[in-house]
Write a structure and sequence with these properties.
The structure holds two protein chains of two kinds. Chain A is mostly helical. Chain A has one domain: MetI-like (MetI-like fold), CATH 1.10.3720.10. Helices cover 67% and strands 0% of the residues of chain A. Chain A has eleven helices and no strands. In chain A, α3 runs antiparallel to α4, α5 packs across α6 and α9 runs antiparallel to α11. The longest helix of chain A has 38 residues. The mean pLDDT of chain A is 84. Chain B has a single domain, classed as Rossmann fold (3-Layer(aba) Sandwich). In chain B, the strands form two sheets. An eight-stranded mixed beta sheet of chain B has the order 6-7-8-3-9-10-12-11, with helices on both faces. In chain B, α6 packs parallel to α7. The relative contact order of chain B is 0.13. The model of chain B has no long low-confidence stretch (mean pLDDT 87). The chains are: A mainly alpha, B alpha/beta. The interface between A and B is medium-sized, with 18 and 31 residues.
Amino acid sequence: MEDYKFLPDDFELIGDKQNIMIDEVAPSKPQWKDILDRFMENKGAVIGICLIVLITLLAIIVPMVSRWGVNAENTAIANQAPSSVHFFGTDYLGRDLWVRTWQGTRYSLIIAVVAVVIDVLIGITYGMISGYFGGMVDSVLQRIQEIINSIPTLVVLIILLTVMKASLTTVIVALIFTEWIPMSRITRAQVLKVKEDEFVLASRTLGAGNIFILFKEILPNIFGQLIIMSMMTIPNAIFYEAYLAFVGLGLTKPLASLGTLINDGFSLFQVHPHAMVIPAIVMAVLMLSFNLFGDGLRDALDPTMKEM
Amino acid sequence: MHKGDTILEVKDLKQHFRVSRKQTVKAVDGISFEIKAGETYGLVGESGSGKSTTGRSIIRLYQPTQGKIIFEGEDISGKMSNKALKTLRTKMAMIFQDPMACLNPRKKVIDIIAQGLDIHHAYSSIEERNEKVYKMLEMVGLSREHANRYPHQFSGGQRQRIGIARALIMEPDLIIADEAISALDVSIQAQVVNLMKKMQKETGAAYLFIAHDLSMVKYISDRIGVLHLGHMVETGTAEEIFNNPLHPYTKSLLSAIPHPNPKIEKTRKSFTYDYATSGLDYEAGYEHKITDTHSVLATDEEFEQFMANAKKSF
């Protein structure tokens, strides 16, 4: 290295080739396009959203158009392996698993939607009120929340089962009790962070009321995190419903939920593994897709939150 | 409001914050001053002296502990009547310190500036509202094309001008500038201060100019109040404060200003002032008037001592 000599053509004069008077300015993009671009860069998230759309379409269309009924039993064709007639095979009563699996996915998706609605309606409202008004209101609301949170959902469900029948409604009611708590916590934390910002104070000096400040100033600034959070709770809710159906506390047989299907297949697992493996895979893929999608949304909406 | 009328009167304002059961922070402890229409009142002091708290108490971001604030004849301390509240919110505005934090990042500039109009429904049609915003933008030296952008697309100085436009849109009589220039680059500071001066000439608004940069305060203010530990230790016109400072704290502040002439700057001595060792007692002191406008906080003995010191230096 020491005896290296610079040659005359090592450096090149750029000179006139580049006009330094003209600034290269990145064209301004609307915000939604920025978000979309960032989302599209994330391959996993794109695969996730594609799978969610695909699964949703299958869950809606298949039970509607299939020539096999959801509960049509035919013991003559019991326990068939997947074939071109029965794509996912049949179970121990000869019911077509292709139809039943997608029927079960319907319930999972309903639960997913319900989880989001609960998050938004109860969680966000509760968290915003608690965080924004602070003081006494906050203390009381937080204590109530802690008391509710200290009761496991399973206990709530078992108590509910003494007065209600095991059904999708019961599971939803149980979810309403506890599902919103993580959401309200995140909302409260975010509101606490934003409400002391100078632009909120500025709004107040101009005479803005509480409703104006909450919905026009604070909510748009925390909405990204809230969407992400609610996407992240979906897999939990789906798993919870399937888990309840599996142990016999949620949807009951002969209704086809992913949980009951896995439970049915479980008893014949060593002989006919397809009856359990296929619904389990569908559920796993569905949960994974929501996770990937939520992850991509987080990166797209809020690049600074990546490390959370 | 005519020039010379008293627009804001602060009487014995106290703002205490209870930190815990045992500890109370007396951020502002009994200060009085008044601002006349169209003038600029500079409020200076070290950090923690209660300058910003005073500004925020006056615009009622805080609930004043004690004292009276009278603004355009309405008492705006304590519980306000609807009329007083309306006067306060439309006729008093605030410019904030941090141009990065004081604009909502999710709103377009047009909506940020029009906020006051939106809240008070001060227009009959959307066109009228937008036209007002465009006019305001041009007044602060931005163009109407900027209206549909988001705050993050602007530089610090531009954002501060948007903040000024937001404060001015309701045509207020008093603007509280809470360290409005201290977060800016020195070259931009001059630009923004000149803009504020220009706007004052055009709108006739009075300023309460809170800052710790004395040279800037001297440049913009008609009268100056010096705050220390929540007490107004000295107040007077800009000349009186700068040419004839009486209180040792004021003197120490003035002695800290760098001089542009390097020969003088070399011999400049800044002397330190410490309340604990100075032997002064702010609690016992009261206002001594030297002239109509110039007064200093002191007890009788302290006042004699101040005057003796002042004579010595002449």
